[in-house]
Amino acid sequence: MPPRPRRNRPTGQRELNEAAQLADQLQSVGYTKRDIARIINRDASLVSQFYTKNKGAAFVPALRQVLAAVQTGGITDLTDLASIASRHITRRTTTSGATARVRSKAVLITPTGSGTGRVGAQAIASGSSRLRPLIAEAVRHGLRLAFTVRLAKTGYVHPSGSRTDSPGIRRDVIQRTDHTEERSYGSSQTGGHDAASFAQRVDAAGGDVTAAVHQWLVETGRIRPDAHIIHLEIRTWRPR
Predict the structure, then answer these.
(1) Closest CA to 163 of 153, 155, 154, 171
(2) Contact indicator for 63, 21 with CB cutoff of 8 Å
(3) pLDDT tens-digit readout, 111-131
């Protein structure tokens, strides 16, 4: 028997707006939606809304210039492309012609250099992008940072309390009833990690903060390569 035709079958795909078309062209030469978001200095969710909510008209001039720079000028560096885009992005206007108000950025780091960002399983699955602004601010202020990870106990190479894992680990281990364990790496006492160096790791991992942390933990022999991070926290402070 032939399959019964589905009801409400769409008659055709909605034509993409120009912002989505330009984003498609950039993706065809190797850039991701997250890269495009960095180029226009916006959240990656906005790039997705080029396709789902018909947004992005205000970024069309910038995206045209970026695409031309890539295809004609041979410019590929994200920082250079972001600089080109910034010259062609203007604030949108309201129906009355006034400049639209935009939300100001949340304060990520206090004047003393203290800042904290946490992500769980859902954010980790998408690359923990919400932690990137915190890391960028830490770099801008020349701060140090530390991180806490949570994963299954079996994912760690060293047992709880091992000083081979991290100095002071006896104070920085939290064991949970679901057979996972939190361990902290870096503190003001041990010096922590240089934010700029850590940011380079994140860039090398394609902007995925969790992947950068995972790579460091594997490289330094602290977790197994197949271990899965289910919680991540980044803390910053100003070195003395």
Answers:
(1) 171
(2) no
(3) 778 888 888 877 777 677 778
Helices marked H in the chain: 18-28, 33-40, 44-52, 60-71, 78-86, 121-125, 132-140, 195-204, 209-219
CA atoms within 13 A on the CB side of 168: 11
- Asked whether the beta carbons of 204 and 227 are under 8 A apart, the reply is no
Q: What percent of the chain has pLDDT over 90?
A: 38
Whether residue 107 is predicted with pLDDT greater than 60 in this model: the reply is no
The residue to which tokens 């271990």 are assigned: 227
Concatenated DSSP letters of 49-81: HHHHS---GGGHHHHHHHHHHHHTS----HHHH
Cβ distance 156 to 181 under 8 Å? yes
pTM of the model: 0.54
* CA distances, 90 to each of 61, 87, 106, 207, 236 (Å): 9, 8, 21, 26, 33
The first and second tokens of residue 119, run together, are 């992500």
The DSSP secondary-structure symbol of 95 reads T
Residue 102, helix vs strand vs coil: coil
Question: What are the respective helix, strand and coil percentages of the chain, to the nearest 5?
Answer: 40, 15, 45
